[in-house]
Write a structure and sequence with these properties.
Number of strands: 31
CATH class of the largest domain: Mainly Beta
Mean pLDDT: 73
CATH superfamily of the largest domain: YVTN repeat-like/Quinoprotein amine dehydrogenase
InterPro entries: WD40/YVTN_repeat-like_dom_sf, WD40_repeat_dom_sf, WD40_rpt
Low-confidence stretches: 57-93, 119-133, 441-462, 470-475
Helix content: 10-25%
Shape: globular
Strand content: 35-45%
Number of helices: 2
CATH architecture of the largest domain: 7 Propeller
Largest sheet: 5 strands, antiparallel
Length: 475
């Protein structure tokens, strides 16, 4: 009974907040109407007055910035041996925690482990969730260092385990599910496939429990060899979390892909998992600094095919939406079709004389693509633009919509979230946050700049890694 009363109280509180929000928006609308009447009367309207009114609405589909408790990001800061998880509160960005690693940081990623039935209403009587299991996405931070190690941390900074990767990891790709798979790309061009199992105390949270093994010298009553399941991992952190990582296979790359006896370094790495086709259908897309793209079967590391891009890759990573991967090539953006294992003939033409250094898709509008440039600007493209709305999608083209300035410094990386776009610039030691909820109707609103200064130390790498566990949602 008390639980029901608590839920009713929660519902009443949410209704009150919704009513307050509606009242606030109505006030904003009325104030904007007043400005509109003034403008129609031929009187110039101060743009700052309009910005002041619209800023009350806050970013991210109606959430006030002060109500957004955190960004689920890991931002690499310092001289390369420090690593921080950042909060954004009331318009300022402040570090939440700092992680110390064994050597200089090379790259990092946030791995979103998704337990079966995560979220309400998905459990069944047959498979009741253990009381110690995660009920939501578990974000694990993976940090690779120059000594060929990968350190795995919880989001609060607690170390889970350190794993010898056997190569210096420059890129990560990850897929959760029944069989979590971590793919690592190295400076030496190698691509490795790792199986992962996440434990909490004695229970498997995500992944498959190890199969029963034959116990040497022991037999059942019928004479068959006795089998026993391996015990849970003995090495757990203070929160009872354990992560078991095993090298599954190494990508089998033919000699024709080598350059001077060596594989070109991995620049981009992405995992494509077709819906409904099971884990065996997963494919890995790799781009290297020789301008080639290689596709592998994730099941065993066998290469499907490789092809060259028309222009060598200039972006620090690739962006994926559906079956399409975007790659910065010079001043333009080229595309790869993961399902067809081929490059797409169409491209997005950028601004001559600039270089695309990072790309990201909009989470709310997947046809919108952001391209960060070496001059500090961000270009916004509509990759499925149709002049005639009745025309078929086959006649869609890529159109440059507008340019958003981000501070004038070379952008290291950009990342799309639900309602936001982040960009980082190591030279200016800044992380910029843009509101993109109204990208269709108006230009991207500029919210935060130069507010992530960390003791005067610059960012390294491309600056941001974001959990994709909740659709890149700010939580």
């Amino acid at each position: 009974m008390e639980a029901i009363k608590s839920e009713i109280s929660w519902a009443d509180e949410e209704i009150s907040l919704a009513h307050a929000r509606i009242k606030q928006l109505k006030t904003i609308k009325n104030d904007l109407k007043k400005l509109s009447k003034v403008a129609k009367g031929g009187i110039a309207v101060d743009e700052s007055a309009m910005r002041e009114i619209t800023s009350r609405a806050g970013p991210g589909g109606g959430k006030a910035l002060s109500k957004v408790p955190s960004l689920p990001h890991a931002v690499n800061v310092g001289t390369g041996d420090m690593f921080s998880d950042y909060f954004i509160t009331k318009g300022t960005v402040t570090p939440k925690t700092t992680l110390q690693t064994s050597a200089k940081v090379e790259s990092f990623a946030v791995l979103a482990f998704k337990p079966k039935g995560a979220g309400p209403g998905r459990s069944s009587k047959r498979s009741k969730r253990k009381p110690n299991d995660f009920t939501t996405v578990a974000n694990i931070i993976a940090v690779s260092t120059t000594d060929s190690m990968i350190h795995f941390f919880e989001s609060d900074g607690t170390l889970i385990t350190s794993y010898p990767a056997t190569h210096v990891v420059t890129k990560f790709a990850f897929d959760s599910g029944d069989s979590p798979l971590l793919i690592t790309g190295g400076k030496d061009g190698s691509v490795l496939f790792h199986n992962m199992t996440l434990w909490k105390n004695d229970h498997v949270i995500v992944g498959k429990r190890p199969r029963a093994k034959v116990v040497p010298g022991e037999f059942n009553k019928d004479g068959t060899p006795k089998r026993a399941k391996p015990p849970p991992p003995s090495k757990k952190n203070s929160n009872g979390i354990a992560l078991v990582v095993h090298l599954e296979s190494i990508a089998d790359t033919p000699p024709s892909c080598y350059d001077g006896g060596k594989l070109p370094a991995v620049l981009g790495l992405s995992l494509y998992a077709p819906r409904g086709n099971g884990v065996n259908a997963r494919k890995v897309v790799v781009s290297d600094d020789a301008g080639a793209v290689r596709l592998y079967f994730a099941k065993n590391g066998t290469m499907m095919r490789s092809f060259d891009l028309d222009v060598p890759q200039t972006s620090s990573s690739m962006a994926k939406t559906g079956v399409t991967l975007a790659i910065g090539t010079g001043s333009d953006v080229s595309f790869v079709h993961a399902s067809k294992a081929d490059k797409v003939l169409s491209r997005c033409d950028g601004i001559s004389g600039t270089r695309v250094v990072s790309v990201a898709y909009d989470v709310l509008i997947p046809s919108y693509l952001y391209a960060g440039l070496d001059n500090g600007d961000v270009l916004v493209f509509d990759t499925k633009f149709r002049a005639n709305k009745q025309a078929s999608s086959a006649k869609a083209t890529c159109k440059l919509l507008y340019k958003a300035t981000s501070g004038g410094e070379t952008i290291d990386g950009i990342f799309g979230l639900k309602g936001y776009l982040l960009s980082t610039a190591s030279a200016g030691n800044s992380m910029s946050v843009h509101n993109t909820t109204s990208a269709r109707e108006e230009r991207t609103r500029y919210l935060v700049d130069n507010s992530a200064n960390m003791h005067g130390k610059p960012y390294s790498g491309y600056g941001v890694a974001v959990s994709e566990g909740s659709g890149n949602k700010i939580e």
